[in-house]
Amino acid sequence: MSTDHHRKIDLQSPADLTYLHTNIKTTAQSKLDLAIPPPPSIPTTATQQQQKPEEDSFRPQVQSLVQDFVTRTLTLALPSLAINGLDAENSILVSADDSTVVEDESNYEAYDPRLAEKLRTLYRQLEWEHTRVAELRREAPGAAARAYEERLEREMEGDRRRVGE
Predict the structure, then answer these.
(1) What pLDDT tens digit does each residue of the chain (165 aa) get?
(2) What's the pLDDT score for residue 98?
(3) In whole angstroms, what is the distance from residue 16 CA to residue 83 CA?
(4) Cα 105 to Cα 102: distance, rounded to the nearest angstrom
(5) Please, are residues 87 and 10 in contact by the beta-carbon 8 Å criterion?
(6) Terminus-to-terminus CA distance in the chain, angstroms?
(7) Which secondary-structure segment (H or E) carries 158?
(8) 10: part of which helix (H) or strand (E)?
(9) How far apart are CA 73 and CA 126, in angstroms?
C-alpha cells in the first residue's frame, strides 16, 4: 500500500454535510424498521384495545446505538472532508438525537409596509441614478471634447493677438 496523501472529499457547503448526515440517519432508520418493526400504534382487535401496547425496550436501545454509530462515523470522517476548500469542523455535525431537525436559524421581521415602500423608493432612486450615469457616459465625452476644443481655440486666439501686436 502506498503512503501517499489522499485528497480530501470536497463538499460545497455545510448544508451538504447536513444533507448527508440526515440522509444516512433516515436510511439507517428505515433499515432498522425492516429489521425490528416498530410496535403497532393503532390496535386492530378488541383484545388489543383492552391491553396496553407493550413497550419494546430493545428497539430504542438499538436505535440509539445506530444513531450514535452514524454520528461517530461522520465525526471520524471529518478530517477527510473539506467544505468549500476549508477543513470541516466538529461543530458542523448535527447531534445524533432523533428529534433534532436542522432548522434555518434566520430571524425574520414582520412585514412592514412603510419599510417596503421605502425600499421601493430607494430602488427607484437607484434606477434613476443608473439612468443618469448612462446618460453621462453618452454625453460627457462629447461635452468634454467640445469644452477642450473651445478652450484651445480661445487660447490660440489669444496667442495670435499677442503675436500680432
Answers:
(1) 455 677 888 888 888 888 888 899 899 989 988 888 877 765 555 555 555 555 667 888 888 899 889 888 888 888 888 887 777 776 666 433 344 444 455 667 788 899 999 999 999 999 999 999 999 999 999 999 999 999 999 999 999 999 876
(2) 40
(3) 9
(4) 9
(5) no
(6) 98
(7) helix 113-164
(8) strand 9-11
(9) 52
Q: What is the pLDDT of residue 58?
A: 84
The three cell numbers locating residue 49: 384495545
Beta pairing, strands 81-83 & 9-11:
parallel
Cα(27)–Cα(21) distance, rounded to whole angstroms? 10
| Grid coordinates of 24 | 444516512
Read off φ and ψ for residue 87, nearest 5 degrees. -65, 140
82 with 11: CB under 8 angstroms? yes
**pTM of whole model > 0.70?**
no
Distance CA 75, CA 79 (A): 8
* Partners of 71 in beta bridges: none
CA–CA dist 9, 80 (Å, integer): 6
Burial label for 17, CB within 10 Å (0-12, 13-18, 19+), is buried
pLDDT at 88: 75
The C-alpha cell of 87 is what? 477543513
For residue 138, list its beta bridge partners: none
Phi/psi at 82 (nearest 5 deg)? -125, 125
